[in-house]
Amino acid sequence: MFRYLRVKNYALLDDIYVEFKRGFNILTGETGGGKSILVKALSFLLGEKGDPDAIRTGEKYAEVEGEFDGISSNIKAILEDAGIETQDNIIVRRLLKSSGKTKAYINDMQTTVKTLKNIGDLLFDIHGQHQHQLLMNEETHLDFLDAYLRILPLRDKLKSLYFQKLKLEEDVHLIEKRLKEMEQRKELTQFQREEIDRANIVAGEDVELEKEKSIITHLEQIVQSLSEAKDILYESEDAVYTKLSRVLEIIRTVSQYDKEFSKDEEALTEVLTTVDDLYRRYTPYLSEMEFNPERLNEIEERLILLDMLKKKYGGTLEKVMAYRKELEGYTESFDEVNKKYEEKKKSLDEVEKELNKLAGEISQKREKGKKGFEDKIKEELSLLGMEKSTFIVEMEKRDLSEKGIDGVKFLISLNPGEAVKPLNKIASGGEISRIMLGIKSILSSQDKVSGLVFDEIDVGIGGRIAEVVGRKMKSIGKDRQVLCITHLPQIAVMADYHLKVEKVVVKNRTKTLINPLNKEERIIEIARMVGGEKITKSAKEYAEQLLNQ
C-alpha cells in the first residue's frame, strides 16, 4: 500500500506531504490546481523520466519521496538482486537536478532507474488521459491482449530473437558484399600468383644476369684486353714477370750484405706470386670464353620478364617475392571470410527456425485465449453500464515482426443489431474511458499490481454512467489501492478517503495545498462539484444525499 507522498520543489508543489489510505482514494479540486502534477510526481518517483522544467522556479532541484508497505515477494526479489535489504516496507526517494541528472534511493541506498522502474511497474499502474488515445491506436490492441494472456515474457524472447535475426541478416549481407568484392579480387590475385610463380624467381638473379649480359656483350673487348694483359705480365720479351724476377735476384744479393733488404725480398716474392696467379687465371678464362648469341637472347628475355614483374609488383625482386607472400595470405583471408559467412548463415537459419516456431506458438496462444479476453471485457462492460455491447478481438496474419505474426484489432458494437466496427469509428470519449477502465481492471487483477491510478478517466461521462464507474473503482479498491482524480461528484462520493487539491498564493508565490477532508468538508466539496463555487443549501443537501447513498 502507498502510505505517503512527499514532494518538494516540483512545479506548484513547493513542499507537500500527503497520506493515502487503503481502498479508494479520491482527489478533487478546481482545474489547474495541481492534481495531475501530483500524478506526474508519483510517476517520476516510480522511474519515469524527469523533466528539469518541472523544478520550481528559483530552485536547483526537486525531490519526491514515498513509502510503500506490504510489498510483494516479486518486489523483494528485485530488490535483493539489486543488493537492497528490505522487510515489508520500502521508502523510495528520487532527486531531479536542474542539469537533468537524477538520483534514486530505496531505503537510503542509491539504486538505478532501471531497478526503480522494475518495482514501479509492480507497485502502480498509472492510467492518464493520454491512454485514451492508446486504446484508439490499434497498434496497442495486441499489447493489451498479450498482457491479459500473460505472454509478454514470451514476447520479450521473441523480440530478442527478432532483433538477433535482423543483426545476423545485416552481418550476412555485409559479408556477402565483402565476399563479392573479394571474389573479384580473387581472380586478379590468382592471375598474379600464377604470373609470379611461372617466373620461378630466385633472389638476386637479376643482378647476376646483368653481370653475365655485360660480359657477353663486351666479350671481344674483354678477350683483347686480357690477352694484352697476359702478354705484359708474362709472355712478352719484356714481361713484368721476367723483369720482377731479375729485380728479386738483385735484392737477394743485396740482402746478403744488408739484412734490411730482406723485407723487400719478401714483398717482391709476393708480387711475383700475384702476377703468376693472374696469369694462371687469365689463361683458362681466355680459352673458355666464347661468344654465345643464344645465351645473350635468353638473358635479355629473362631480364625483360623480371623488369616487367618488378614494375608491376614493387620495384625489386625482393619486393616481388614479398608481394607473392602477401597474395598467399590474401587467399587465406578469403577462406576465413567465407568460413565466417557459412557460420553466420547457419546461425541465421537456426535463429529464423527458432523465431518462426516461437511466433507460431504465440499466435496459437492468442487464438486460443482471445475468447476468454472477449468474455472478460464483455463482463466488465456490462458492469459499467454497457451490457448490450458486443466486443470482438479480430486477428489477422501479418509479416513477422518483433511482436509476432499477428495483427489484432478490437471491434465493438454498442447497440443490438449493429455491426461491430473499430473502436475509433463508433466509441465516444466516455465509452472509451469505460472500456479502458474495464481493460485496466482485468489487467491489474492478472498482474496483481499493488495499486491503480486513474487521472481524470471520467472525461466524457456523467450521470448514471459516472455512478457506475465510481462503483467499479470502489469495487477494485477492495482488492488493491486506487487513487483517482475526478471532477464528477458521482465518482467522488464513492471514495473511502477524500483529498482536496487547491491552489493558493502566499507571499506572491503560487503553490498547491493538499488536505484530507472530514465529513462536513467533504459535503461542501461535493456541493461545489455539483453547483459551482457558490454553494447553496440545496447543493449541500444534494451532496449529503449522494454521500449517504
What does this structure look like?
The protein folds into 2 domains: 196 residues, Rossmann fold (3-Layer(aba) Sandwich), CATH 3.40.50; 228 residues, no CATH class. Helices cover 59% and strands 19% of the residues. It has 18 helices and 15 strands. The strands form 3 sheets. The protein has a 6-stranded antiparallel beta sheet, covered by helices on one side. Strands 8-12-13-3-14-15 form a 6-stranded mixed beta sheet. A 3-stranded antiparallel beta sheet has the order 9-10-11. Strand 9 and strand 10 form a beta hairpin. Helix 4 packs across helix 14, helix 7 packs antiparallel against helix 11 and helix 9 packs antiparallel against helix 10. The mean pLDDT is 86.
Quaternary organization: single chain
What are the low-pLDDT stretches, counting only 5+ consecutive residues below 50?
Answer: none
Shape: elongated
Question: Helix proportion of residues, in percent?
Answer: 55-70%
Task: Give the amount of beta strand, in percent.
Answer: 15-25%
Figure out the total of helices. 18
Helices and strands: which structural class? alpha/beta
What number of domains?
Answer: 2
**Terminal-residue CA separation:** 27 Å
Count of extended strands? 15
What topology, given as strand order, has the largest sheet?
A: 2-1-4-5-6-7
Backbone CA Rg: 49 Å
> Biggest sheet: strands, sense, closure?
6 strands, antiparallel
Query: What is the residue-averaged pLDDT?
Result: 86
Question: Which descriptors would you attach to this protein?
Answer:
2 domains, 549 residues, alpha/beta, 59% helix, Rossmann fold
